[in-house]
């Protein structure tokens, strides 16, 4: 019988590079999506927020501290919130050195720059509206930018783009403002509440601990706003064993900092 290492799951979910291939390059940078591309990973996840002067940028934390040199560059601007810096200021920051000296000079991308790069790479996008409560109307602005950048044409809308959030209101707004766009809710609603989520969300995206077969089956039993079976993308899985476990539970996608490891673990036999 196959060893644990060589065993392949019966079912082969998609692999999504979390914040790009963020185990091997600085998260949410162009270097991280390029790294995922080099690994042959089609899907990337990112986080979108807004600068003081109203520009959409790709960054996970609501402050600039952890992933840039902002504290050295702007020592008087504590607590270094993304919302308190203009794009021009943000573009002076080094978003790569914290991860490794070979990434020195990497910048925080605007959403437009990011979309341009992944379009060139032929990648698909799981876009997260991060802390949307801080950014009034970011749903409409994000949809507008996606349209400008050519991401809401038929092809992309159908298969290349999902907008997700922990914030139910934000996902509801995205669905109302552009019902064609696929959406995902981040979290684990109670199974008796899933029917409500299925009115506006095409995916329910729980942690890997919550992605049991029982829960995945309960999600799959429902149809989403586009009359298709609700999907499950789970996060954040960085090792082969857990990847095989959630694949066996039936998830449709696995969001990972080590997408090369995960895609290999769940590849078809
Ligand atoms: O895509 C799932 C995951 O990104 C949610 O958590 O904190 O990494 O944005 P976080
Ligand atoms: Ca995220």
TrEMBL record:
Domain GP-PDE intervals: 13-266
Domain of life: Bacteria
Coiled-coil ranges (or none): none
Keywords tagged on the record: Signal
Protein name per the record: Glycerophosphodiester phosphodiesterase
